[in-house]
Design brief:
By secondary structure, the chain is α+β, with helices and mostly antiparallel strands. Helix content is 41%, strand content 21%. The protein has one domain: Trna Endonuclease, Chain: A, domain 1.
Length: 96
């Protein structure tokens, strides 16, 4: 599965999990390293860096921004191998 296919599948799943959420595709050309997606749900937000697999290449600054944004709300790198774990953690963060 390509990263684009994984993103499409995952965004559909997130919209089912969090009805009414807004999923925004971020522009990597504006700020290198910013996670791919921002999810807005009620008073909560999350950013997700989506990868096709655990071993997919990372761009400079991606880990930095994921860690920084996770300290503010919720942020994670997500790929098929950790999808369930990350979505559960995001669900718990949104419930808090």
């Amino acid at each position: 599965m390509t990263e684009a296919q994984f993103q499409n599948k995952l965004i559909k799943k997130i919209k089912e999990m969090f009805p009414g959420c807004v999923a925004i595709k971020n522009d990597a050309g504006y700020q290198q390293g910013i996670p791919d997606w921002t999810i807005l749900y009620k008073k909560n937000w999350a950013t997700l860096e989506m990868k096709a697999s655990r071993g997919s290449a990372r761009q400079p600054n991606q880990e930095y921004f994921v860690e920084q944004l996770d300290g503010m709300s919720f942020s994670a790198v997500i790929y098929p191998e950790n999808e369930e774990e990350v979505l559960l953690a995001m669900e718990q963060a949104f419930a808090a």
